[in-house]
Amino acid sequence: MLIQQFFTPKIAHSSYILAGSRSCAVVDPQRDVDIYLDAARALGVTITHVLHTHLHADFVSGHMDLAHITGATIYAPRAGNCAFDHVPLAEGDTITLEDMELRVLETPGHTPEHIAYVVADLSRGKDPIGVFVGDTLFVGDVGRPDLFPDIADELAGQLYHSLHDKLLKLPDFCEVYPAHGAGSLCGRAIGAKRLSTIGYERRYNPALQIADKSEFIHSLTSDMPPAPDHFSRCSDDNRRGPARIAELPAPQPLTPPQFAAQMAQPNVVVVDARPYAGFAGMHVPGAWSLDLNGNFPIFAGWVLPTDQDLLLVADSEADVTQAMVWARRVGLDRVAGYLRGGMSAWVTTGHPTTTVHLLSSKEARARIAGDPDGSPEFTAGLVVVDVRAPGEFAAGHIEGALNIPAPDLRTRYTELDPAKPTVVLCSAGPRGSMAASILQQHGFVEVYNVAGGTTGYNAAG
Fold first, then answer.
1. What is d(CA 227, CA 301) in angstroms, rounded to the nearest whole number?
2. Would you give the distance in Å from CA 110 to the centre of its chain?
3. 291 and 226 assigned to the same domain
4. CATH for 420
5. Is 33 left (phi over 0), alpha (psi -120 to 50) or beta?
6. What is the pLDDT of residues 67-116, one digit of tens each?
7. CB 3.0 to 4.6 Å from 359: which of 119, 135, 363, 432, for a disulfide?
8. DSSP labels for 45-109?
9. Cα–Cα nearest to 114, from 196, 52, 39, 28
10. Domain that residue 262 falls in
11. Rg (CA), the chain
């Protein structure tokens, strides 16, 4: 028996191959599946099973592609009511893969339909060697139950029982294979370590130390980080069976005149994936700033529409491809084209640009504080907007700053005065650039982003 983990950064997703000598299963696959095909070839095994622990909310899964390419059978929770061909699973069902047996536990809580797969290597013994827990249990954390707000308390209660009455009944030496690691918004504070054991989590996982069920429910339904918009739709995409990657059209290279003509059409948005400093220097008017070096997929899924065509601006065709892959991973399938030649081609053909004023930490401090070397005109009426999440803001912020998380500016821009100079800052710069692009879309003219965000600001003293 061999277990191989695949970790996808930014969305912090872990998927797995469970392999024998001839065949293997892929557990909770990402949408672009070449990594599993390559790994299976390298191992000399055939992909015969595709296993889902639940209908993932934070990304679109690759089950349809894997089944089509390999002929593998898809297994999914019966309670998920999936619309594609699959084997529905419920408590007590078992799957045999060579000398391995996978026993199904129903573990609702993070989602209503969640299951776990308890793995035994029968060539060595009947005891469980590991468990694919999906998003029920993480390293140092547990799955959040608030993605379904109307039934959050009920799900939190189910999660308590899934953990204490099922997973924690497994032996301490049983390994834990979670579907996410640090950085995922499927938990509150997932640890950086990517694998664990039942015994270690039993002893050191803070959520598992809460013995009282009512206290556990309150903890898991209070002060959770905000959930991105795509969390409410990706699970339905996965339930229906997402379009296969091969069925999606490739984005078309567009000359600047073609790009401008496409921009003028209804239901089209421009996404600038360049580093935020490049966006600040010049960009296509009205473009969204989504720095590919930041958490592009999370914020693309959060703020971009699924019912409109996306036109990309990037520094290279390789970056266009990377942006398209990330967009598709969060269900943004309408990447229609990209600006051939990038911003250099745009400006050398005479097309208009706009800018975001970029401030160093020292400049920001001087102007916010009204120091003598700052600009009195700038300081008068200055508004400082901290666009980090509420928890980040609570941990420390500039005195007098307003806290409006960057994605919320799509609607909360009305709380600000577009006639006033507005400084935005995040933790490092990319979210501030996204926030600035949103404000510009709503008529804010004098918008400033702080390079390096609060990280640079604090480092500067």
1. 11
2. 16
3. no
4. 3.40.250.10
5. alpha
6. 999 999 999 999 999 999 999 999 999 999 999 999 999 999 999 999 99
7. 363
8. -EEEEEE-SS--SSS-B-HHHHHHHH-PEEEEEGGG--SSS-EEE-TT-EEEETTEEEEEEE--S
9. 52
10. 250-347
11. 24
